[in-house]
Amino acid sequence: MDEYPNRGKRRFPPKKKVARRGGWKPPVKKPAGRKEQGWDQVAAWYDQLVGKNGSDYHQHVVLPAAMDLLSPLKGKKVLDLCCGQGVLIPLLLESGAVQVTGVDASPQLIESARARFADDQRVSTEVADACADGKWADASFDTVASLMAVHDVPDLPAMCRNAAAALKSGGEFVAIFMHPCFRIPRQTHWGWDEGRKLQYRRVDRYGVDLEIPIVTHPGKGGGETTSFYHRPLAEVMNAIGGAGLAVTRCEELVSHRRSQAGGSRSKGEHRAAREFPMFLALKAVKLP
Ligand SMILES: C[S@@+](CC[C@H](N)C(=O)[O-])C[C@H]1O[C@@H](n2cnc3c(N)ncnc32)[C@H](O)[C@@H]1O
After folding, report:
1. Does residue 224 belong to any structural domain of this protein?
2. pLDDT tens sequence across 247-258
3. Where is each Methyltransferase domain found (predicted)?
């Protein structure tokens, strides 16, 4: 049985037809006229998970790396693309950004962001699809940041083109997302090699686009679902480059989490945690 009946297609190089197990089927398409709403169906869960200060991963890995890559921000006009409920926005303002616009397809998450920054004249928000043309992509921004969203949008080349369109010439794009080689929901796992006393990272699938359903409360049953779009690394890089954004910096970020188990596996588990990056961070500049 096909474990992921919604699986996507290999998009690069482009092919007219896609061979899939069970014979050729047309690629999965949204019903015509359905408005993109991002993570709206899981907004309450995500808002609670992230809270005011960010999830555990935000606080220890993603936000510190983002602020390092985004600096200096003094005097800058910044677009937070797929901003969610705005976890990055206070840090941008603290670092001297003069104006921040948050764009996200989820009306509920934008409402949470609005409620948080209602009294701050420097912040504006907009419900919009990052993959569709929009007035916000108006070549006026010094910086575009996008955290944990590259794998959540259905059309990455379009999102990158819009990020580039939002930037002034020479402006910078910073994106941090789950590492496409080592962290693919349901397809990557930790394993233990007893003979070599090492923890390894097992990658079951990598080279083909996948649309992976993510259930928000898997243990409880009846959880809401959203989609994770896995794309091989080359496809991500080509989407960025194809939009006229030249990568100037790349960081592979490891998890801050370490095994608490102790005992004979402790050394191997610690080594693996340092060895396999869970997130990829890219900084790119808009070419003239
Ligand atoms: C994992 S959340 C990250 C949110 C925020 N950047 C953060 O770090 O907390 C992914 C976000 O992407 C948004 N999103 C997904 N598809 C989108 C699209 N096509 N256009 C705009 N936002 C989208 C979701 O609504 C959600 O807020």
Report:
1. no
2. 999 999 998 877
3. 78-171
Q: CA of 144: how far to CAs of 60, 122, 159, 234, in Å?
A: 22, 16, 11, 21
Report yes or no on 210 lying in a domain.
Answer: no
**136 Cβ below 6 A of ligand 1:** no
From atom 17 of ligand 1, which residue's Cα is the shortest distance away?
Answer: 38
Q: Which two tokens stand for residue 208?
A: 């083909």
Tell me if 88 is assigned to some domain. Answer: yes
Cβ neighbours for 70, distance < 8 A, ≥ 6 positions apart = 78, 92, 95, 143, 145, 172, 174
pLDDT value, residue 25? 35
User: Closest ligand 1 atom to the C-alpha of 40?
Assistant: 25
pTM confidence score = 0.88
Total of domains in the chain? 1
Distance CA 136, CA 3 (A): 39
Written in H, E and C, the secondary structure of 20-61 is: CCCCCCCCCCCCCCCCCCCCHHHHHHHHHHHCCCCCHHHHHH
